[in-house]
Amino acid sequence: MLAVFGPGLVVMLADTDVGSIITAGQSGVQWGYRLLALQLVLIPILYMVQELTVRLGIFTGRGHGELIRDSFGPVWAWISVGGLSVATVGALLTELSGVAGVGELYGVPRAGSLALATLALLATVLTGSYRRVERVAMIVGLFELAFFLVAWRARPDAAAMLRGAVSIPIGNPDYLYLAAANIGAVIMPWMVFYQQSAVADKGLEPRHYAAARLDTALGAVLTQLVMAAVLIAAAATIGAGSQGTDLQTVGQMSQALTPFLGQTTGRLVFGLGVLGAGMVAAIVASLALAWGIGEVTGFRHSLEYHPLEARWFYGVYAVCVIGGAVLVETWPDLVSLNVAVEVMNAFLLPVVLGFLVALAIRALPPEVRLRGWYRWVVIVIATLTSGLGVYGGLAGAGLF
Predict the structure, then answer these.
(1) Does the predicted model carry a pTM greater than 0.70?
(2) pLDDT tens per residue across span 59-81
(3) Minimal CB count within 10 Å: which of 101, 119, 165, 340?
(4) Which structural domains are found in the chain, ordered by start?
């Protein structure tokens, strides 16, 4: 079972990326605990979505892009990868902006921290097999557990938390916009591509299905508890005295929290959490795009190949990482797009979940494909989740 664990935990740790952390922090600052219940409601939805990727990866042995191409044709495969490309670019901008922000907390120039992060990301993938990359990603991602310490040190009021969680201003466009951002921060296109491709690349078989599902379930609970911890910390500290404050950068969030957590401890703990989130998400998002393009084009796309044997696969990964670092260095204010990136992910949900459900109905062997009452539960939940994400984003933009 322990040998099977990895893809689910890695993708879920990546799910709590820098954009997600800033979105959760914004939610706590602007709305207190009113978006806390949403974090918990999203746990079973996140598990449902990613469990389908596990099922598809194990029982077909193929990645997400390859399966779309074989089931629906190359045009639909390229449409899916196009959405993945947009989401990956947005993710890399937020991850590397966050890493640069942590460097700036300690006086490291933006160019220096981005160069170090780029070298670390390239070395992790170009010098190792899938299993080594997975281990590095899990170790780095576990720094996110630092946010539990942040939430505990914030000393939240349990009664206020309960009152806020059940007070939902569903008619407020600004609330709906942040709700859409939180949904987009949880279900992202690159997560679907990554986990299915990672399961296939790792060589998991039907006998591993139960353990792989448990891996995914534990990851879903962990990532949403991290999101809840960030929201609680922000609501109990900054939001308690100044709801409506607009915090967009890692540096602003850290500076606002340090008076409550202590200058040295607050900066260190918050910095480690953001660094872990940004680095593991950068690995996952870049690999997801490299896998997706490789699956659609038919080029070799596995971490088990030497870089010289799979030049396009490793080349796409390197271009993602280096290009993202150059963009962040050139336009430092891109970090302000964090919440907007998550809303963009919400707009992509109909395409992402539509393909996923269609594949689970059509491409799986008859004995494990979606059928019966659970098939309709998945369709209804996917439709409602996509609809709420799109509606919230449009309402926040003033189009409803």
Answers:
(1) yes
(2) 988 888 888 998 888 899 898 88
(3) 119
(4) 7-396 (1.20.1740.10)
